[in-house]
Amino acid sequence: MSKEVQPERIDGQTVAITGATSGIGFYAASQLAELGARVLVLGRSESRGRAAVSALPNPEQHEFLQLDLSDRTSIARVGDHLGELPRLDALVLNAGVVAGAFGPGPAHRIGAFGVEEIVGINHLAHAELLRRTLPTVKRVVSLGSMLTRKIPFDRENWLSERHYRARVAYAMSKHAVEIFGFELQRRLAEISVQSVVVHPGGAIDALTLGRPGARAARAVFRGVVQGKDQAARPVVAAVASPELRGGEYLGPHRTAHAEVQQPVTTSRDPELGGWLWTETERLLGARIPTEPRHPIG
């Protein structure tokens, strides 16, 4: 029997969410704001970011930070800012390039980290952002994908160096997110940082509450796909469920916000996690700190 997970109020907590100007990120921000959180909305567009903040419950409590995950200077600026905050209760690594799901996807491009852009933005950019927030942040929530169940992880081609298809590159990026998320828990538990991995299920904008015909469409597609507002619920549960342990994997549930599920076996493989950690540090050109910033004594 699955373990259902429901969020509780988190008044006074600060939560930063990448890609929170639209889609799942925005609905997660809105739902967390309703639970009392102060939300830092991270996104590329200043106009969309300020509009998102103004649409949140109690907008005066929240803040927009401009972040471009394809720009290392932008990542460094925002990451250093987050790392200097007096408290950061959760960092939700939500933003990303969704490629090849409904068509051929973009052409192969090398991004800011010197590798294929989709993996660079979805995994490496978030790893760099996180690296700069440690150990200020207390809980990290990483967004995986159901696609990891359909396309297996290819250790020899996870960076699309041998051949490229956008859908496969996206799957590799989400495998990396999941593998790294569980390795984070193994590495960072000693500095009281918890890492939770979630997958939002299948979500399309047409089923999002408030869209024309969304209620009727939900009745037809129930159990297959869902709206972006529903897809945000596992993210909210991962942030705002105090009984949830680090190292858990959450997915959608029909009646609860989320339930504890099992990822593909490669996601929890400690040998693969250690390898990816080393590869990630090599590609970032920097260590990821796993010790307190200010030693005791």
Helix/strand layout:
Elements: E1 3-5, E2 14-18, H1 23-34, E3 38-43, H2 46-55, E4 63-66, H3 72-83, E5 90-93, H4 117-133, E6 139-143, H5 166-188, E7 194-198, H6 214-221, H7 228-231, H8 233-240, E8 249-251, E9 258-260, H9 270-284
Parallel strand pairs: 2-3, 2-5, 3-4, 5-6, 6-7, 7-8
Antiparallel strand pairs: 1-9, 8-9
Helix pairs in contact: 1-8, 3-4, 4-5, 5-9
Structure, described:
The chain is an alpha/beta fold and 297 residues long. It folds into two domains: 250 residues, NAD(P)-binding Rossmann-like Domain (Rossmann fold); 27 residues, no CATH class. Helices cover 37% and strands 13% of the residues. The chain has nine helices and nine strands. A nine-stranded mixed sheet has the order 1-9-8-7-6-5-2-3-4, with helices on both faces. A hairpin with a 6-residue loop joins strand 8 and strand 9. The longest helix is centred in the middle third of the chain and has 23 residues. The protein is globular, with a radius of gyration of 18 Å. About 6% of the residues have low confidence.
Summarize the structure.
This protein has helices spanning 23-34, 46-55, 72-83, 117-133, 166-188, 214-221, 228-231, 233-240, 270-284; strands spanning 3-5, 14-18, 38-43, 63-66, 90-93, 139-143, 194-198, 249-251, 258-260.
Descriptive keywords:
297 residues, alpha/beta, Rossmann fold, nine-stranded mixed β-sheet, 37% helix, 13% strand, globular
Structural class: alpha/beta
Major sheet summary line:
9 strands, mixed
- The number of helical segments is 9
* Overall pLDDT score: 90
Query: How many angstroms separate the termini?
Result: 46 Å
Low-confidence stretches: 206-224
How many domains would you count in the coordinates? 2
CATH architecture of the largest domain: 3-Layer(aba) Sandwich
Count of DSSP strands: 9
